[in-house]
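dumping this here so i dont lose it
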C-alpha cells in the first residue's frame, strides 16, 4: 500500500441528517445523543468520517441550512456539551467528524440580518446584498430571488428561500467574522467541513454571474489560507453549478483550496435538460457513461472528487436509478457502480440498507422547496396528478424520512411522533432485518468497502469504459500497475447475456450468489453486479 496518499482520499464518509437519524428523547426529532448511541453501527459499516448536516441554531425553515447562530447548537438537537461528547466519542471509535458549513447565506433570524434590516446605516447592512430595483433572477427554490424589505425600502437578494438572505462576500469584515467562526470550530476538534453551495460565494449579482462567479477562486484561496492550510482536516465543497474541469482545478493539490468537491454532472440525468428538476425523463445509460468518463478522466489528472449518488437533497437512489421490484439487487448494483470508481465514497444514511422513496399526499410533506414548488406548478397550470408525480419522484423529503431501525413502533426511530412520516415499508426495510441477513445490503456494503481498502487500484487506477454502446450494462476497467479489475453492472430488469473481454478472471464480489458463465459469456440476472480481477 502506498502510504503517501492523503487520508481523506482513502476515507469512506457517512452523511448523517440529524433530524431523521435517531431520536433519543421521544420528541420525534433526531438528536446528538441519538447519533452517539449509533456510532458502532456506523463504524461497523467501514466508515472513517461522519459528515453531520447542520446542527446550529436555526429557525429550521430549510431544516438547518438557514443558520441564525453559527456558534450555538440548536436545542432540538442537544447542547454544546452533547456536541463535544459526540466529537470525543467519534474520535474514540477511531473515526473523524466534519460539520456542514453554510456560508453563502444565513437565516433572516441571524443577528447580522436583523441589524441590517433595522438600521440602514448599520455596519451589518453591507453584510447582505441590497438593491432599489429587483433584477430578473429566480431563486433556486422558485420565485424571485429578491424580497422587498418594507422597513428600509430596498430589496435583499436570496438565491434560496426568502428566509435565507445571501451574504455579501465582498465585505472584508464579514469574511473575517466567518473565518474566525470556522477556526473556533476547528479548535473545538472538528475534522473539517462540507461547504454548502460554496460555488456561489464568488458571485457578481449585478452581472448575473452566480455559480463559479468571478471572485470564487480569490475567496476560496483566502478561506484556505486563513482556516485550512497546514491543518489535519478534510474539506469537501458542494459545487452544483460548476463544470467538471473547474471542479478539478479547485481541488488541485498543487494549488489547494478544497480537498474535494461534489460535482453533480451524473445526478440530474433523469431531468429534461434546461427545464429544472421537476420535468423528468428516463435515464439514458450511454449518456451516463459519457458523463462518468469525462469526470473520471478529468479528476484522474487533476484534483479529487467525492463519489455519491444520494444525499439529503436527492431522492433515494434505489427508487430513482434502481428498481424497487429488485430493491436489494439494484441497491447493491448502484453501490458497486459508484464505489468502484476513483474518489472518496460518501454514503447517505439509509442507503446502506437500500431505503426507498415515498409517495405521500401533499399534506405529509415538510420540505420548503417541495411546498413552494407545489404552489408554483399549480399556478402554472400543471394538473395535480402531474405535480404529485413529479414530487413523488423528486422531492427532497424522499431521502429525509426517518431512518428505519427495526419493525417496531415508528421504525424504532422515536418513541414519539416523528417530524416527518416514517416510510410505511419499515416492516420489511429496516436495519435490524437487513444486517442480520448475510445477503442484505449492509453486509454487501461492508464487503465492497473492504475490497476497496485492500486494493489501491480502486484508489489510484485509471478508468476505462468497456462496451460503451451497450445500453443495458455499465462496465469499466480499473487498472493500476500490474493489476486490473473489471466492474460489471447491469441496469436490465431481466436476465441478459454479456460478452466478457477474457475467460481468465477471478470473481471478487457479486450481488448474486451464483454467477453463470460459458466461454466469454456471462449470464446477468436482473441488476446483476460484480467485481472481477483480470488474470492475464
Ligand atoms: C444546499 C443544501 C440544501 C440547502 C441549500 C441551501 O444545496 O444541501 O439542503 O437547501 O444548499 O442552503
Ligand atoms: Ca429528540
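and the seq i came up w/
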Amino acid at each position: 500500500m502506498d502510504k503517501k496518499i492523503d487520508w481523506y482520499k482513502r476515507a469512506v464518509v457517512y452523511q448523517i441528517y440529524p433530524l431523521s437519524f435517531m431520536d433519543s428523547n421521544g420528541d420525534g426529532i433526531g438528536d446528538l445523543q441519538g447519533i452517539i448511541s449509533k456510532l458502532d453501527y456506523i463504524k461497523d459499516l467501514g466508515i472513517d468520517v461522519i459528515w453531520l448536516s447542520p446542527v446550529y441554531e436555526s429557525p429550521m425553515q430549510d431544516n438547518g441550512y438557514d443558520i441564525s447562530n453559527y456558534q450555538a447548537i440548536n436545542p432540538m438537537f442537544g447542547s454544546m456539551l452533547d456536541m463535544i461528547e459526540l466529537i470525543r466519542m467519534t474520535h474514540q471509535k477511531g473515526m473523524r467528524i466534519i460539520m456542514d458549513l453554510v456560508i453563502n447565506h444565513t437565516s433572516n433570524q441571524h443577528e447580522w440580518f436583523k441589524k441590517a434590516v433595522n438600521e440602514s446605516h448599520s455596519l451589518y447592512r453591507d453584510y447582505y446584498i441590497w438593491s432599489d430595483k429587483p433584477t430578473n433572477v429566480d431563486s433556486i427554490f422558485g420565485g424571485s430571488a429578491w424580497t422587498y424589505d418594507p422597513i428600509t425600502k430596498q430589496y435583499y437578494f436570496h438565491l434560496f428561500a426568502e428566509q435565507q438572505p445571501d451574504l455579501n462576500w465582498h465585505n472584508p469584515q464579514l469574511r473575517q467574522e466567518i473565518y474566525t467562526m470556522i477556526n473556533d470550530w476547528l479548535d473545538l476538534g472538528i475534522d473539517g467541513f462540507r461547504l454548502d453551495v460554496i460555488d456561489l460565494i464568488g458571485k457578481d449579482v449585478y452581472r448575473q454571474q452566480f455559480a463559479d462567479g468571478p471572485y470564487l477562486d480569490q475567496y476560496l484561496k483566502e478561506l484556505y489560507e486563513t482556516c485550512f492550510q497546514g491543518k489535519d482536516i478534510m474539506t469537501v465543497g458542494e459545487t452544483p453549478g460548476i463544470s467538471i474541469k473547474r471542479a478539478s482545478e479547485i481541488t488541485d493539490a498543487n494549488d489547494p483550496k478544497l480537498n474535494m468537491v461534489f460535482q453533480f454532472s451524473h445526478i440530474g440525468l433523469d431531468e429534461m435538460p434546461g427545464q429544472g428538476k421537476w420535468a423528468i425523463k428516463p435515464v439514458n445509460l450511454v449518456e451516463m457513461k459519457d458523463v462518468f468518463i469525462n469526470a473520471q478522466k478529468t479528476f484522474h489528472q487533476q484534483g479529487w472528487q467525492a463519489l455519491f449518488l444520494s444525499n439529503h437533497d436527492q431522492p433515494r437512489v434505489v427508487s430513482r436509478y434502481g428498481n424497487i421490484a429488485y430493491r436489494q439487487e439494484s441497491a447493491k448494483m448502484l453501490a458497486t457502480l459508484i464505489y468502484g470508481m476513483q474518489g472518496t465514497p460518501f454514503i447517505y444514511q439509509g442507503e446502506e440498507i437500500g431505503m426507498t422513496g415515498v409517495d405521500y399526499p401533499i399534506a405529509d410533506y415538510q420540505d420548503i422547496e417541495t411546498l413552494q414548488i407545489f404552489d408554483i406548478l399549480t399556478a402554472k397550470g400543471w394538473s395535480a396528478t402531474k405535480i404529485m408525480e413529479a414530487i413523488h419522484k423528486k422531492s427532497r423529503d424522499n431521502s429525509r424520512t426517518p431512518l428505519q431501525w427495526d419493525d417496531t413502533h415508528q421504525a424504532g426511530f422515536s418513541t414519539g411522533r416523528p417530524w416527518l412520516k416514517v416510510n410505511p415499508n419499515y416492516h420489511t426495510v429496516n436495519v435490524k432485518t437487513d444486517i442480520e441477513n448475510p445477503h442484505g445490503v449492509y453486509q454487501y456494503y461492508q464487503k465492497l468497502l473492504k475490497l476497496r481498502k485492500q486494493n489501491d487500484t480502486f484508489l489510484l487506477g485509471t478508468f476505462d469504459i468497456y462496451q460503451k454502446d451497450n445500453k443495458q450494462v455499465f462496465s469499466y476497467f480499473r487498472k493500476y500497475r500490474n493489476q486490473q479489475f473489471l466492474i460489471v453492472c447491469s441496469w436490465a430488469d431481466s436476465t441478459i447475456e454479456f460478452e466478457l473481454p477474457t475467460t481468465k478472471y477471478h470473481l471478487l464480489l457479486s450481488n448474486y450468489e451464483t454467477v453463470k458463465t460459458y466461454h466469454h459469456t456471462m449470464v446477468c440476472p436482473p441488476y446483476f453486479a460484480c467485481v472481477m480481477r483480470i488474470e492475464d
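The two ends are 22 Å apart (CA to CA).
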